[in-house]
């Protein structure tokens, strides 16, 4: 065996057992336990309480820091000032190893969970999942305006595009798409489940980027932009479903035709 | 009988002394006075329970604790597998029916009965997935194709092969449901030890799983009664199908 291959196989032999040792407790299925404080998207229970996404201290500091965002942006300064406002030492920002990204994530989580609250308070328009999705996207974009973060959202997008934070940002985006489709009452359960979430996430990300450049009062241009893009997605999703239905129908037709000719199928 | 219950009965007798002559057993929970007394004695025995009653203003007897992340993940993957499995079962039976009924018309009733039950299970799990926000498996289109192929090819091989396929699939599925039921019963026992209630959702899920498991095992019996064991390469066929089922379960649990 050439020495390089030998070294490589030795490397594998030495690395493997260590990796196995870390998995001594059998959990089901064996997935890594998420390090983030927000619970993963999994089984949603109705008769059991859902723990809040952040512990009380973190919530207090981050909420206060959000108040500093319009003046100081999504920055370490805003975090430190937030800690002081909440009555903690500025060094408490050590609670957040991700720094300013934690502030971005906190805003996203807060706004996402706030959507359910708006549904409880204001209800949702009648007339199908489509209309409700449009309304929920409008409300979520409006939150950026009302929360005062829209002027600084460009900084947040720059942070989220950073390779270190991109996975967190994408996960949060997919949670938002899931939340919107769930609240809208979407019941698709095949590949359409994924297609719809991906398409909605894409539209929402585009709309938020548009919003950072929007100078219209109350960002009404962004709302129109999102509405139009969502219209495009609908026709795409419909085409997707139609093709699948056509294929199934044709296959059934051909099979039944052959059976009627006496072919043993 | 625990002393608290004896006390409750004694005190009721002092309230309604005419009941003393009746030899019929008196339902304990019939009177408000007594049922309240029972709650308070249970609360005295279990501090956690008492705290919960106090926290809920004495109205509801339970404040259940949240599901752990591990429990959520278990339910997530288990329900995803169940839905994929029922989808496959529906497709297997619907692909088997035409070739089987052509050669053995008397099996029409049985095939229809099994198909209808599987369609009911599929609908049940679809509703559960949407309600509890469990994502469907990524392999959905692949399982559709695989299940249809399996059903059709075993049916073309003959009645015995089709029944052997049913036997193999339902054996795996029955085992799978049994392991889920065991896990849920463990959780229920843990909660009971802590003095908490299992909650209506979990109880309903447990009942649904038991009902569906029993129906799947009934299909297994039908298959064996219809000469599943006579299938020609019986060992090979059932082992290949069971291996395939286990692989599909393993994959669907993850993606």
Automatic annotation (TrEMBL), chain A:
Keywords (A to Z) from UniProt: Lipid-binding, Mitochondrion, Transit peptide, Ubiquinone, Ubiquinone biosynthesis
Domain of life: Eukaryota
Subcellular location: Mitochondrion
Region annotation (Disordered) ranges: 21-53
Family: Belongs to the COQ9 family.
Function, as annotated: Membrane-associated protein that warps the membrane surface to access and bind aromatic isoprenes with high specificity, including ubiquinone (CoQ) isoprene intermediates and presents them directly to Coq7, therefore facilitating the Coq7-mediated hydroxylase step. Participates in the biosynthesis of coenzyme Q, also named ubiquinone, an essential lipid-soluble electron transporter for aerobic cellular respiration.
UniProt pathway annotation: Cofactor biosynthesis; ubiquinone biosynthesis
GO biological process, one term: ubiquinone biosynthetic process
Coiled-coil stretches noted in the UniProt entry, renumbered to this chain: none
Domain Ubiquinone biosynthesis protein COQ9 HTH, chain residue ranges per copy: 61-83
Organism placement in taxonomy: Eukaryota, Fungi, Dikarya, Ascomycota, Pezizomycotina
Name under which the protein is recorded: Ubiquinone biosynthesis protein
GO cellular component, one term: mitochondrial inner membrane
Pfam families: COQ9, COQ9_N
COQ9 C-terminal domain sequence ranges: 166-236
GO molecular function: lipid binding
From TrEMBL, chain B:
GO molecular function per UniProt: 3-demethoxyubiquinol 3-hydroxylase activity; metal ion binding; oxidoreductase activity, acting on paired donors, with incorporation or reduction of molecular oxygen, NAD(P)H as one donor, and incorporation of one atom of oxygen
Pfam families named among the record's database cross-references: COQ7
Transmembrane segments: none
Cofactor: how bound: Binds 2 iron ions per subunit.
Pathway(s) where this gene product acts: Cofactor biosynthesis; ubiquinone biosynthesis
Source species, domain of life: Eukaryota
E.C. number(s) listed in UniProt: 1.14.99.60
Keyword tags: Iron, Membrane, Metal-binding, Mitochondrion, Mitochondrion inner membrane, Monooxygenase, Oxidoreductase, Ubiquinone, Ubiquinone biosynthesis
Subcellular location: Mitochondrion inner membrane
Membrane topology: Peripheral membrane protein
Broad class of where this protein is predominantly found: mitochondrion
Catalytic activity: a 5-methoxy-2-methyl-3-(all-trans-polyprenyl)benzene-1,4-diol + AH2 + O2 = a 3-demethylubiquinol + A + H2O
Binding-site positions, Fe cation 1: 86, 118, 121, 216
GO biological process: ubiquinone biosynthetic process
Cofactors demanded by this protein: Fe cation
Gene Ontology cellular component annotations, sorted alphabetically: extrinsic component of mitochondrial inner membrane
HAMAP family listed in its UniProt record: COQ7
Functional note: Catalyzes the hydroxylation of 2-polyprenyl-3-methyl-6-methoxy-1,4-benzoquinol (DMQH2) during ubiquinone biosynthesis. Has also a structural role in the COQ enzyme complex, stabilizing other COQ polypeptides.
Protein name, entry field: 5-demethoxyubiquinone hydroxylase, mitochondrial
């Amino acid at each position: 065996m050439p020495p390089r291959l030998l070294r490589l196989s030795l490397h594998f032999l030495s690395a493997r057992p260590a990796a196995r040792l870390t998995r001594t407790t059998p959990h089901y299925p064996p997935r890594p336990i998420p390090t983030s404080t927000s619970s993963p998207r999994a089984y949603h229970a109705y008769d059991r309480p859902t723990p809040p996404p952040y512990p009380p201290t973190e919530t207090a500091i981050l909420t206060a820091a959000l108040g500093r965002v319009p003046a100081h942006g999504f920055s370490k300064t805003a975090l430190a000032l937030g800690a002081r406002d909440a009555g903690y030492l500025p060094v408490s920002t050590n609670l957040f190893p991700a720094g300013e990204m934690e502030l971005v994530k906190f805003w996203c989580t807060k706004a996402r969970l706030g959507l359910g609250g708006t549904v409880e308070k204001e209800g949702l328009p009648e007339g199908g999942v489509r209309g409700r999705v449009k309304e929920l996207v409008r409300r979520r974009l409006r939150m950026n305006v009302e929360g005062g973060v829209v002027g600084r959202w460009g900084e947040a997008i720059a942070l989220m595009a950073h390779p270190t934070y991109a996975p967190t940002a994408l996960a949060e985006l997919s949670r938002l798409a899931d939340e919107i489709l769930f609240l809208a009452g979407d019941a698709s359960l095949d590949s359409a489940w994924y297609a719809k979430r991906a398409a909605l996430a894409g539209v929402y990300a585009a709309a938020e980027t548009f919003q950072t450049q929007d100078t219209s009062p109350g960002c009404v241009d962004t709302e129109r932009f999102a509405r139009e893009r969502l219209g495009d997605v609908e026709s795409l999703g419909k085409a997707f479903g139609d093709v699948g239905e056509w294929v199934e129908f044709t296959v059934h037709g051909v099979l039944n035709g052959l059976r009627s000719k006496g072919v043993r199928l | 009988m625990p002393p608290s219950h004896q006390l409750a009965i004694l005190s009721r007798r002092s309230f309604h002394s005419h009941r003393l002559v009746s030899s019929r057993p008196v339902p304990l929970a019939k009177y408000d006075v007594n049922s309240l007394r029972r709650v308070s004695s249970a609360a005295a025995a279990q501090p956690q329970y008492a705290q919960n009653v106090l926290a809920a203003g004495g109205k509801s007897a339970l404040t259940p604790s949240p599901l752990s992340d591990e429990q959520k993940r278990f339910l997530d993957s288990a329900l995803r597998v169940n839905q994929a499995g029922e989808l496959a079962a529906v497709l297997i039976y619907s692909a088997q029916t035409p070739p089987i009924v052509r050669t053995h018309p008397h099996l029409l009733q049985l095939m229809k009965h099994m198909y209808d039950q599987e369609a009911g299970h599929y609908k049940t799990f679809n509703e559960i997935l949407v309600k509890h926000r469990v994502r469907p498996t990524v392999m959905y289109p692949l399982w559709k194709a695989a299940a249809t192929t399996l059903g059709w090819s075993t049916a073309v091989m003959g009645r015995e092969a089709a029944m052997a396929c049913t036997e193999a699939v339902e054996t795996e599925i029955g085992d799978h449901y049994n392991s889920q039921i065991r896990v849920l019963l463990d959780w229920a026992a843990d909660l009971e030890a802590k003095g908490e209630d299992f909650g209506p959702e979990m109880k309903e899920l447990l009942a649904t799983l038991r009902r569906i498991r029993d129906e799947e095992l009934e299909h297994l019996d039908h298959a064996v009664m219809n000469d599943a064991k006579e299938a020609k390469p019986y060992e090979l066929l059932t082992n290949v199908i069971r291996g395939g089922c286990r692989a599909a379960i393993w994959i669907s649990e993850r993606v």
